[in-house]
Specification:
The protein is α+β, with helices and mostly antiparallel strands. Helix content is 36%, strand content 18%.
């Protein structure tokens, strides 16, 4: 599926400026982060690009830091923890954008990671990541997908292309890695939301992943290094 063709445009993006429970753009930590990274006087495009790279690289992508509590899924929690997986990192980017007046929403897709690590595959029982999180930002009259999950250092260690975002086109996962091997495959687009749909997300994970109830215990192993695992498998 070409996920770049699935963007849903809206003539009134103003409904995506208010704070949400998880896209907590009114949280002091989110506001401080957003204002440190970008100036509200910048254009929406400049703000979106600066925030994208800050969320992508200042906070490690860590699928083992798996906190699905209400607090754990908030964008502000990523700042406090210094890391997170795709769902809360997408919430943080949306929250920071809203804090600076750029309409933003969160979207989800099912993606198959052909290069997932053995440890993560054993934990999940599959290489299909259901409800992968991304962000949509309203820039120059259109919704653009931005995927801030994988930080640059992880990509360099794992041999995969870091995603770029210039504020004019969608930023979605690459189909192949730097060696030409199949990497990410978009399987199903689950649409966009004003705020993170926690109950729907958890219910869907319980259906797709038989081991879901054990993930918290597995993720508690702080010695896990996802980048090292993927790099070793390359």
């Amino acid at each position: 599926m070409d996920v770049t063709m699935q963007t849903t445009n809206s003539n009134d993006p103003s409904g995506y400026l208010a704070p949400g429970r998880y896209v907590d753009s009114d949280h002091p930590t989110v506001i401080a982060f957003a204002r440190r990274v970008a100036d509200p006087a910048m254009t929406p495009r400049e703000i979106a690009v600066k925030l994208y790279y800050a969320v992508r690289d200042e906070f490690l992508y860590d699928p083992y830091y798996f906190d699905t509590t209400v607090e754990g899924l908030k964008g502000s929690h990523v700042i406090e923890a210094g890391r997170g997986f795709c769902v809360p990192k997408a919430a943080l980017l949306a929250a920071a954008a809203r804090a600076l007046g750029v309409p933003a929403r969160v979207g989800y897709a099912d993606v198959r990671n052909h290069l997932t690590s053995k440890r993560l595959y054993d934990m999940m029982g599959t290489d299909l990541f259901v409800f992968h999180g991304y962000t949509e930002l309203w820039v120059d009259g259109q919704w653009l997908k931005a995927t801030p999950a994988f930080n640059r250092s992880l990509c360099e260690k794992a041999g995969i292309h870091p995603l770029e975002f210039d504020g004019s086109a969608d930023s979605v996962f690459h189909e192949f890695d730097v060696s030409g091997r199949r990497h990410m495959e978009y399987v199903h687009d689950r649409g966009v939301y004003a705020d993170l749909p926690r109950e729907e997300l958890l219910a869907t994970w319980r259906v797709h992943y038989k081991t879901f109830s054990d993930w918290g215990q597995v993720a508690a192993d702080s010695g896990a290094d996802f980048a090292q695992e993927v790099g070793s498998a390359s």
